[in-house]
Design brief:
Layout lengths: L2 E7 L5 H7 L3 H9 E5 L23 E7 L2 E3 H13 E7 L1 H5 L11 H9 L18 E6 L9 E3 L6 H12 L74 H4 L17 H11 L33
Parallel strand pairs: 1-2, 1-3, 3-5, 5-7
Antiparallel strand pairs: 4-6
Helix pairs in contact: 2-6
The chain binds iron/sulfur cluster (SF4) (3 copies).
The site of one iron/sulfur cluster has 13 residues, from helix 1 and helix 4.
Amino acid sequence: MAVKVAEEWLNACSGCEISIVDLGERLLAVLDLVEFVHIPVLLDHKYYGQLGEGKHINIPEATVGIISGSIRNHEHLEVAEEMRRKCQIIIALGTCATHGGIPALANSYRNQEILDRYYHTETTDKVDEYPSEGIPHLLDSVYALDEKIKVDIYLPGCAPHPDQVFAALAGLLAGELPKLPDRSVCDQCPTVREGKGQVKQLRRFLEAPHYGAPDEPIDKMRCLLEQGFLCMGSVTKAGCGGDKIVPRCIAARVPCRGCYGPVQHDGNQLLQMLNALASNGIDIHSLPDYVSLLRFSGAHKLLRPGHKQKEA
Ligand code: SF4
Ligand code: SF4
Ligand code: SF4
């Protein structure tokens, strides 16, 4: 009998759902074994019944519940809680769900500041009162899923690599609870490390032409951090290269920005990266701003109002 799966997207961009579609032909094999009973990105489902007669959000029961996106407002919270009630196993899909992701950068501002900025810019009409009717109320912060409901499996990544999505689904269908190893992007990076670099100040990536010629093999290129670029590989969970292993940005000769979140679930990429810079002899005051070190993992109360970007 097919395994019932429910999928939901909360404060999300749908990139994680694209990862599911990017399974390609493997998706056909998965679809032979699972039945999607709820997946708003593909199938319309009326939360409150076909005629809107229900009083509470209603999602069908499923064995596996996949949730992408963070929790930003009361509707997200209600949907997440209903998924938890109806699904035996909950997978947090993508770094928004596991660590707040890009949306959690908002946690360095109070809601009032965000609304003021949004409604009182040059490009929007100024309003005396912000719209509120029919709009879910904002929570005080952007939350990762496990701050509000119990999560069984974490699949970080912005977006998660389809190989990992497939491995997780295949594992579950075989009756196993998959867990990604606590390894870092550096552990899977083939670049050459010679020890502490000569650079004392961080260099702006786009201004520097010395990060490796396009035809130079990646395993001959010197580590980008040792060259003085802000590469967050040492504080970021491995896996973005999927079965090909070489981390995606490194394969493109671009520094890692940390999109898989911390190596260990409760790690702090900001503090760990400051340590990594210091141990490489790089002056941390040359960082353009500190907040961006948490650009993918600002939930779990790591980013709070007052953590503002450095003024230019
Ligand atoms: S983790 Fe990335 S791809 Fe997934 S919903 Fe968040 S922003 Fe989009
Ligand atoms: S810091 Fe970046 S370039 Fe250097 S080893 Fe780690 S991932 Fe590779
Ligand atoms: S190298 Fe870093 S930023 Fe790039 S995809 Fe991998 S984890 Fe994400």
